[in-house]
Design brief:
α3 links the parallel β4 and β5. 44% of the residues are buried. α4 runs antiparallel to α5 and α4 packs antiparallel against α8. This protein has 11 helices and 7 strands. Strands 1-3-2-4-5-6-7 form a 7-stranded mixed sheet, with helices on both faces. It has 268 residues and is α/β, with parallel strands linked by helices. The chain has a domain of 184 residues: Rossmann fold (3-Layer(aba) Sandwich), CATH 3.40.50.1820.
Length: 268
């Protein structure tokens, strides 16, 4: 019999450094590599665990999986168990931020601190429209049109203009990728809504928000800040959705300062 796609898969992960564990979660269609520069800065001070989520990067892609948040959550908890990690600081980008939020709500005992980068408590109509446009562009216009569309939506224009070699690399890589899992996770993301539970987040939380995010509007950062008790917020101007790529040093500094403050605080 084929394996049950709802059972946890063994995620492939970058794992280096020592100290408090910091888990970095990528978003839809990404991989652990989006965190490379940030992870390199954090690894001398913390144990950094950076997985490829199911169907992304080097991790398995179960054929019949829905790529639901329940499945991703099960995979992540299984990874922590396999690594012998009782609790960790969860840092998520975009869809990874939604996943980190879900884990903090459902399994607070596994979370020491929570960092939500370009995240939200729910997927609004604007983000749904962006995701649907990506799906339709890929299906109707092909891989290169899809790459150009996502580059325009995900990155701040001035940063993109200064990093055209990065754009060329993305355009070369997109035709080689299988976006089936990303498309299914994207559809699951469209139904994400934790507004009724967000105030019950019981772990220290840092929100990192870009003022010029064209995918998750900056208003989501304010909603999270107002809804999560004691949450801190860090806002980057002239920055697009992909904060760890555009602002890796500042992102690493913000995460490191937050983790140190949580670790130094008395625990109940």
């Amino acid at each position: 019999m084929p394996p049950d796609p709802s059972l946890p898969v063994e995620l492939v992960a970058r794992d280096e450094g020592e100290g408090p564990v910091v888990v970095l979660l990528h978003g839809v269609g990404g991989s652990h590599t989006v965190w490379n520069a940030v992870a390199t800065e954090l690894a001398p001070h913390f144990r950094v665990l950076v997985p490829d989520l199911r169907g992304h990067g080097r991790s398995p892609a179960p054929a019949q999986a829905e790529y639901s948040f329940d499945e991703h959550e099960g995979d992540l908890l299984a990874l922590l168990d396999r690594k012998g990690i009782a609790s960790a600081h969860l840092v998520g980008l975009s869809g990874g931020a939604l996943l980190a939020l879900r884990v903090a709500l459902n399994h607070p005992e596994r979370v020491r601190g929570l960092v939500l980068v370009s995240g939200a408590a729910y997927c609004d109509n604007h983000t749904r429209a962006i995701a649907q446009r990506w799906i339709e562009t890929y299906a109707n216009e092909g891989a290169d049109a899809f790459a150009l569309r996502t580059l325009k939506d995900l990155y701040y224009p001035d940063w993109m203009e200064a990093h055209m070699e990065f754009a060329d690399q993305v355009r070369a890589e997109v035709p080689k990728q299988d976006f089936g899992p990303a498309s299914r996770w994207s559809r699951a993301m469209m139904a994400f809504d934790e507004r009724n539970r967000i105030a019950s987040v019981a772990r220290p939380t840092l929100i990192v928000q870009a003022m010029d995010d064209e995918v998750m509007d900056a208003s989501h950062g304010r909603i999270l800040r107002q809804s999560i008790p004691g949450a801190q917020i860090r806002i980057f101007a002239q920055t697009g959705h992909m904060v760890p790529t555009e602002r890796p040093h500042e992102t690493a500094e913000a995460i490191a300062a937050f983790v140190r403050s949580v670790e130094a605080a008395p625990r109940a």
